[in-house]
Design a protein that fits this description.
The complex is a heterodimer of chains A (about 80) and B (about 425). By secondary structure, chain A is of the alpha+beta class. Chain A contains two helices and five strands; from the N terminus they run βαβββαβ. Chain A has one domain: Alpha-Beta Plaits (2-Layer Sandwich). Helix content of chain B is about 40%, strand content about 15%. Chain B starts with a strand and ends in a 28-residue tail after the last helix. Classes of the chains: A alpha+beta (about 80), B alpha/beta (about 425).
Amino acid sequence: MRRNVTFRIVVDPIRCDGFGHCAELAPELVTLDEWGYPILQAEAFPQSDREIRRSAQLAVRGCPRQALTVQKIIAAQS
Amino acid sequence: MTVELTTRRVLANHLDHPKNLSEHEADFGPINRLSITIDVLRDSGITGRGGAAFPTAKKVEFLLQQRRVTRYVVVNAMEGEPAAHKDRMLLATNPHLVLDGAMVLANLLNADSVIICVAREHLKTITQVKAAIAQRGAKRLQGPSFEVQSPPGRYVAGEESALVHWLNSNETLPQYRPTRPSIQQIGRGGVLLDNAETHANIGLIARHGAEWFRSVGTATRPGTTVTSVTGNGKAVVLEVPYGTAIRSILSGAGIHYEPRALLLGGYGGTWLDGKHLDVGFDDDSLRPFGAGTGAGVIMALPPESCGVAECARIVDYMAKESARQCGPCAFGLPAMAEDLKALTSGRNASHSLSRLTSRSNVIEGRGACRHPDGVIRLVRTALNVFAEDFSHHAAGQPCQFAHSARVSYIPHQSDVKDLEWE
């Protein structure tokens, strides 16, 4: 059985103060609302996509409030 | 507040004072040897009465599966909902029934402490609960200890994570829970938190069994619901089986006009068009109309009133009640309140309508708790039910009732910077 690993980033909305660094570092994953708070891509990306994984990492590390985390989703593939 | 005669279970034999222990035992039977098993709880199919309608047996099972040394049973009687009066009514009628339910659940979970949470503004209720606890103390029963806690009565203070956070660190702020369902903790102990009405029903299930409990109500929502009906200026608390037609609940509460619309569930609830009065008051019947029972609140909007203006007042209140922890709620709700205010007066309202819809879509699901989602549910159903009014208002032609909106009760709110959280 092969495992199909995908990931998305999630935000702790209480920690987030709307610095907006994430949208600069990972524009393909994050857009900002009219108040400057992040709207995250709801769909999950394949773990094998290196480029997207790289920008997710940048966004997570670049958050001054450490509000972002990468959430791995492991689904069994039939 | 008055009580009308209907199916009375948790509000049975209402006296003019909270029943003391001997009156309680004369009505319902002795309290020693009361117990409940997880099977009875599961068979009864009881769902939470606080608004989310989560099966109580599932919560208990989650806790039983976990290896924990300490467990706590928390009774949520905060009642932050301005239109709701049921928990206070219940504790002013049968306080021992609530304590019975908490006691049997605590024994089932092996919890040695029960915490009853009443907002500190509800002084009378605090006194009543304390008196009931003292009467039980005098009997030297075995079982859990009881205590009363009184957090500040803000709207979000009754949210479960906010309440547990108060018990842990004296701040009624909702918490971020990345995984759901999540088990709340006091220290390292697991917490079972249920609404006071749920506990009272469990106090009865422990006596009469699951089959008795299921004998009224619907298949998916068995039992009764204690509803708080407003619409005549005063609040009426009525206990009715789930599935009772809304029309008969209204007439039971003395509302005999044909309402334009109904606010169901609470200020984070849903609007229902006034033509659906024959729909049953339970979630399955209401779902096709986009509505739900929530915390059992029914507010009837009289014919000579403005839905847009009422909605604006409620959203303004809800925006001020935000804990201001999450950006989308702290900035989004006031922005939506401003849009609604502009629509009410009909001045500069042309963009407000479309902006209201787009802002709803942007804010939804982005708070740590469900406070913003409740407001969005309210606004979306309002846009649906009052669609015609909204388009008139947006075109700069507000209705004649827009400036005299007074139906929904808005409690006094202190200035944002003076809000008390601890």
